[in-house]
Amino acid sequence: MNIKGRWFDWCNTVFLTLVGCIMVFPLLHVLAKSFSSSKAINAGLVKVIPVDWTLVNYKVILADTSIWRAFLVSVIITVGGTAINLIMTASLAYPLSRPEYSMRKVVLIFILITMIFQAPLIPNYLVIKNLHMLNTLWALVIPSAISAYNLFIMRSFFVALPPELIDSARIDGAGEMRTMWSVILPLSKPVMATMGLFYAVSHWNSYSTALYFINNRALYPLQLRLREIVLSNDLGQAESLLDGVNEVSPAGVQMAVIIVSVLPIIIVYPFLQKYFIKGMLVGSIKT
Q1: What is the pLDDT of residues 140-158, one digit of tens each?
Q2: What is the DSSP letter of 137?
Q3: Three-state SS for 40?
Q4: Which end of the chain is more exposed for a tag (fewer CB within 10 A), N or C?
Q5: What do you get for the CA distance between the two ends of the chain, in Å?
Q6: CB atoms within 10 A of CB 78
Q7: CB atoms within 10 A of CB 180
Q8: How many CB atoms lie within 10 A of CB 176?
């Protein structure tokens, strides 16, 4: 490698390291506050290292059953919604990837239009209301069953698969459903993991949909409960269950809830990272 190449690699490494530190700093700051005392937080002493280490903020969360209930709702939405998303997206992407299926180009054009022109909030609300899905978890899952962007990525992956595999399955007597579930999907782990991660993160972080369609507090997801805590300092049942709750800083509790809300995604991502990278690269090769 010549001098210019080494210089570029060194500058690139330094730049990306700085960008990484800038991106990690807010998370470290939130983590430090969640383990710091109210006095240290109110005095502005907390940066990236906890001051006056304490677990009282997490005790507040453990004492508030509404947070655990919201956490469970988010888990149900994320797991169930992601399963529905993958099934529906794969079921539509596979026929759209096969050249022998007629009208596929017309369908793709209609799907592309939905990416450019999206329905406003009021028509969406009226549709959900007429389908009797208000104040149900279905309202958080069914309307977003298929993402057009994810559909195009999955279709591109299916198009890139060797057609000889499909022909061999048909010669052996397999129908379209058997070919898809026994041949196509086992070879599509990278793109399925990628799309699964996209859908799961979207479900886990979504709160606007629940804000519009859910009025029952028992069905609030974690992000909507976090929004209440951040905007109104509502500590819920913990105020009456914990002795010394007055010594707890609302900011500390907010930071603790944020850590709890992002922790599942942080834990899951390393196990899916290799599939995530491979799925994104392979899915972008051919359209």
Answers
A1: 999 889 999 889 888 888 8
A2: G
A3: helix
A4: N
A5: 35
A6: 25
A7: 20
A8: 15
